[in-house]
Amino acid sequence: MQRIIDLRSDTVTHPTPAMREAMYRAEVGDDVMGEDPTVNRLQEMAAERMGKEAALFVASGTMGNLICILAQCGRGDEVIMGDKAHTFLFEAGGPSVLGGVHVRTVRNRDDGTVDPAEVEAAVRPDNVHFPRSRLVVLENTHNRCGGAVLTRAQMDPVVAVARKHNLNAHLDGARIFNAAVALGVDARTLAEPFDTVSFCLSKGLSAPVGSLVCGSREFVREATRLRKVLGGGMRQAGIIAAAGIVALEQMVDRLADDHANARRLAVGLAEMGVFDIRPERVQSNILIFGLATDRFTPQQLVARCAQDGLKFQAIEGGQFRMVTHYGIEREDIDAALGIVRRAVGQLGRA
Ligand SMILES: *Cc1c(COP(=O)(O)O)cnc(C)c1O
Question: 309: phi > 0 → left, psi -120 to 50 → alpha, else beta; which?
Answer without folding.
Answer: left
